[in-house]
Amino acid sequence: MDRMTSVTNMERSRMNKFKTDASRSKLSFEQLPNELLLYIFQFLSINDLHRGFYNLNLRLNTICYSPEFKLDLTRLKYAFDYYCSIQRSFASQIYSLKLCDEYDRLTLVNRHMDISLFKNLRAITIRKSSPENFDKILSKLHSLSNLSYLNIYATLIQSPHITTALFSIRSLKRLILYSFDPILLHFTDNTICPWTKLEYLELNGCYMTDFLKLLKYVGSNVKRMVISIFYKRREDPASIDPTIIDNLLCGDGGSPQIPGKTGNDNVNPYLIQSKYKR
């Protein structure tokens, strides 16, 4: 009996030691190295990161401010509302932003968000916007010095203010415009200057006369344009500059092409893929 008791006590002692050693070997979340925490945080949304880790301690706050984020505000309404309440916390870390006007979201963006806080924003996509909200938010984008990509989708693009606002974004490299109706461009504002960094331009529909005016302002760095062109009924051919038309028809293999403006034979001229509709 004494022998069995002794064996049992020894087994209990070993089990207790095993549990103690195992508990000592476990790491708490905060004991993980910074590199691993940064890797984990890359898979979290801004809202989840804010809810779970923000303001727990100085170290986690510092790590939270390290990653860059894509922010998509076109999906769940509650996610949009939550971000609007915390926007100042992570605005400088967002490099890509998606917006839409469903549930009147752009009205709330214009009312409650300070676009100038997104100092490192490089890409914006806006879809299904009302003309009024689109005008308001577009007029603020010139303050984003790092913005290089702008995609406007399923939005009516005809306001006279839009052309001036687009040309005020001097950092643009890629511009994509998809409008419900033909895009109307207005070059009556004397402050409009050619883009100096634009490399890619895509328009899903504009009139030939507007397109020919646009060619004077696209800048010398444009490498490719994809344009759907509409002809107005009874359009006066005399209003179209014949020298530009000749240039459009100088491509090889039937592809319309404008000669490069750099004078460097090693630089490929930019191409125009045009769809002609009446």
From TrEMBL:
Residues 26-49 form the F-box domain. It comes from the Eukaryota. InterPro entries: F-box_dom (IPR001810), LRR_dom_sf (IPR032675). This is F-box domain-containing protein. It comes from Rotaria sordida.
